[in-house]
């Protein structure tokens, strides 16, 4: 076929006879057998000792092709070894000259499957493959596919669109993987989205593949960062910020100084990475991080855009917020005000920078967001007063009560708290982490007290996937409370269901929670929830799938009619009457 012809076309250029030549010889000769023998002699392996060995192989029924093939394979292996050796020996210019000559000679045979590996190996070892050859490779899908990543990098660095086509599916896969973890059916307070260490996360398939594609090529690294910035701007999806940090740290792990030394965020990210590993910003590292922020020089403010993206990584926000809550508790014990704690102020400064990432990159105005004084003078003291309320309540419970009745837990929330959660992004983030904190402590009173403040929050943060993922995990610690109608009404009717119909993701998280805890929920409540949570025509596949899983589980729990009739009349349970809403 034409494929064959094209494949062996290069042989003639090199003065090597091919099938066409043999056909021609046979067409124009009188004694075909003699002609074949002569062709074999002229084009066979030129080793004197072979002329006696070959007839011997013929006697054993070994086809000549098989023999030639094995000789060829052996030679190719030797040649590949030789190419790799040339790439390492002698003076730089000389060794590359040798390889370029070899490429010149062999490139015409690149279509021959048997020779292709050799040509590819030569190109792989050339730091600069001639432009003409790169263009030929690029124009041919199969050749491009067969290329070593070293050659592809040379193609990519001048073809952003082609590189984008290669990177794009990886970025999609990365975002999907993150979302799958957030929506996973395994709910636990021990294992959550933030459990894997940074080092473990960097071993992920996408980060490893991107690291491999970039190699030591600063131009490609910059392109990937540009893609991540653009996608972050387009989608506001914070997982792109995580990837930005993971990629840099993956190159750091491999000690690729060519890139690490030119990325101005390297040392900051490295220090922050250590904090994320400990899930806490200690004083020594706090000083170091502050040094980087204070050290941003006039004219280099653009680096703030990059630093803000690093700080917008949910893993960074998580670490900063957890550290903030811990600091606030310490301050209560020390009787110190938030504004008197430089460490706390630094945490807030970094939270502000991270939360302002999108606006900064969008507006291209590179300056640190102004910290609102009220956050420090009013909101944080409010949170501290909640911590005090808990201490007081706990102590009161333990005091012997003579004439006074039990002291009720404070049930109202200061209006200022609700207002802060609605209007101030940083306050909202810290407030949500405080609620996660009390849930983890199984502090049901405090949880029910603050829950109403979550219905309306800054840009709906209380209905974001990361918060709901963490909240559902922590709620498993309060699983026994789900038997109480009142608790369920506060949690479901008072919070989740207020957003279920307008936010598909909330619908998913409620179903995840019920899949996990349905056996704990008050039966009457469960029944009404099953009705309310039924998917609509507009619901996505994920919601329908979860709802079906839940229905199947509940079906299995229903007693069969036979069992019901056999219950002795004395022990019939009283019908539960749902309380009117």
Automatic annotation (TrEMBL):
Name of this chain's protein: NELFB factor
Start and end residues of each stretch annotated as Disordered: 557-581
Pfam family, one: COBRA1
Any one GO biological process: negative regulation of transcription elongation by RNA polymerase II
Signal peptide: none
Residue ranges of coiled coil: none
InterPro entries in alphabetical order: COBRA1 (IPR010405)
Any Gene Ontology CC annotation: NELF complex
Protein origin, superkingdom: Eukaryota
């Amino acid at each position: 076929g034409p494929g064959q012809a094209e494949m062996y076309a290069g042989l003639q250029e090199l003065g090597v006879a091919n099938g066409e030549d043999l056909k021609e010889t046979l067409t124009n000769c009188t004694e075909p057998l003699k002609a074949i023998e002569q062709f074999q002699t002229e084009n066979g392996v030129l080793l004197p000792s072979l002329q006696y060995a070959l007839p011997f192989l013929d006697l054993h029924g070994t086809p000549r092709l098989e023999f030639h093939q094995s000789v060829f394979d052996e030679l190719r292996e030797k040649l590949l070894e030789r190419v790799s050796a040339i790439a390492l020996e002698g003076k730089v210019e000389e060794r590359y000259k040798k390889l370029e000559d070899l490429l010149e000679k062999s490139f015409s045979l690149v279509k021959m499957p048997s020779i292709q590996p050799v040509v590819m190996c030569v190109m792989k070892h050339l730091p600069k493959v001639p432009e003409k050859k790169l263009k030929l490779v690029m124009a041919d899908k199969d050749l491009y596919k067969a290329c070593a990543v070293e050659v592809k990098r040379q193609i990519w660095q001048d073809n952003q669109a082609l590189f984008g086509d290669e990177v794009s599916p990886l970025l999609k896969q990365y975002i999907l993987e993150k979302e799958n973890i957030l929506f996973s059916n395994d709910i636990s307070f021990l294992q959550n989205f933030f459990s894997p260490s940074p080092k473990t996360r960097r071993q992920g398939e996408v980060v490893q593949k991107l690291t491999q594609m970039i190699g030591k090529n600063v131009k490609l690294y910059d392109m990937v960062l540009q893609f991540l910035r653009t996608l972050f701007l387009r989608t506001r999806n914070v997982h792109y910020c995580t990837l930005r940090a993971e990629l840099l740290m993956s190159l750091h792990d491999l000690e690729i100084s060519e890139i690490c030394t030119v990325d101005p965020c390297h040392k900051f990210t490295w220090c922050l990475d250590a904090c994320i590993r400990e899930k806490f910003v200690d004083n020594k590292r706090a000083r170091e991080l502050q040094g980087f922020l204070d050290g941003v020089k006039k004219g280099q403010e653009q680096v703030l855009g990059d630093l803000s993206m690093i700080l917008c990584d949910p893993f960074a926000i998580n670490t900063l917020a957890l550290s903030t809550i811990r600091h606030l508790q310490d301050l209560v014990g020390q009787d110190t005000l938030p504004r008197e704690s430089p460490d706390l102020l630094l945490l807030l400064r970094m939270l502000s920078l991270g939360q302002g990432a999108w606006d900064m990159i969008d507006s291209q105005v590179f300056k640190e967001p102004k910290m609102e004084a009220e956050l420090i003078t009013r909101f944080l003291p409010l949170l501290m007063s909640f911590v005090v309320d808990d201490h007081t309540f706990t102590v009161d419970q333990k005091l012997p009560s003579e004439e006074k009745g039990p002291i009720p837990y404070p049930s109202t929330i200061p209006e200022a708290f609700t207002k802060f959660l609605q209007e101030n992004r940083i306050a909202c983030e810290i407030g949500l982490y405080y609620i996660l904190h009390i849930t983890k402590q199984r502090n049901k009173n405090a949880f029910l007290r603050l829950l109403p403040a979550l219905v309306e929050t800054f840009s709906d943060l209380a209905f974001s996937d990361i918060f709901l993922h963490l909240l559902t995990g922590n709620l498993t610690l309060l699983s026994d409370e789900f038997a109480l109608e009142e608790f369920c009404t506060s949690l479901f009717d008072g919070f989740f269901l207020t957003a279920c119909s307008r936010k598909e993701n909330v619908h998913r998280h409620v179903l995840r929670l019920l899949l996990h805890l349905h056996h704990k929920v008050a039966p009457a409540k469960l029944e009404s929830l099953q009705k309310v949570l039924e998917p609509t025509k507009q619901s996505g596949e994920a919601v329908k799938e979860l709802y079906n899983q839940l229905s199947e589980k509940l079906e299995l729990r229903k007693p069969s009619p036979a069992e019901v009739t056999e219950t002795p009349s004395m022990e019939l349970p009283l019908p539960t009457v749902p309380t009117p809403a």
